[in-house]
Write a structure and sequence with these properties.
This protein is an alpha+beta fold. Helices cover 19% and strands 27% of the residues. The protein has one domain. The strands form three sheets. Strands 2-1-6-7 form a four-stranded antiparallel sheet, with no helix packed on it. A three-stranded antiparallel sheet has the order 3-4-9, covered by helices on one side.
Length: 178
């Protein structure tokens, strides 16, 4: 025990830095966050293309009509793209889900798939899918390339893939706005 105490006592710079880190006041943050009505409206805009009056409209020359869903063998990260840690089993491809109430159910600041969504069956390889992600297609309904992730989350239980297995996400797959 004395050796441990001496090791800490010898490094006064470390002790001072640790004390500052532990006892320094937290940085000022804005109180609160998004209002729950706006959280739900934001999810409706993203997943169903529903306008937020005076803020956002689902117009333009070609607004997205689908969202791209991918599987990942590890967390693609907060700044990752759909190609980060993406599934690579034989015949894997991202799937597109309609960007409307037929593809996604938005309620109580949560989004879920409206129906079971299946990925192509594995023709070769074996891996475990632990995360899914949702992104906007590059154009129209093209779900390929390094798409920017809008939302990502863990898959529980993990999907263990081998030849002949058809991975699927169920209506219990939830996305929550915070």
């Amino acid at each position: 025990m004395k050796k441990t105490i001496r090791a800490f006592a010898r490094s006064t710079a470390l002790v001072a830095a640790l004390a500052l880190a532990l006892f320094a006041p937290a940085p000022a943050l804005a109180a609160g966050g998004k209002a729950s009505t706006f959280e739900n409206a934001l999810l409706l805009l993203i997943f169903n293309g529903t306008t937020i009056t005076s803020i956002a409209q689902n117009v333009g020359s070609t607004p997205a009509t689908v969202l791209c869903v991918a599987l990942h063998t590890a967390d693609p990260g907060a700044g990752g793209a759909q190609s980060t840690n993406e599934a690579a089993y034989g015949s894997y491809a991202r799937i597109s889900v309609n960007r409307n109430s037929g593809g996604w159910t938005v309620s109580g600041n949560q989004v879920s798939l409206t129906s079971l969504e299946q990925f192509p069956a594995a023709t070769s390889g074996s891996e475990t899918e632990t995360y899914f992600s949702v992104a906007v297609p590059t154009s129209g309904s093209t779900c390929s390339g390094s798409l920017t992730i809008l939302y990502r989350g863990p898959i529980t239980p993990n999907l263990v893939i081998s030849t002949g297995v058809t991975p699927e996400l169920t209506t219990g797959t939830l996305i929550t706005e915070q």
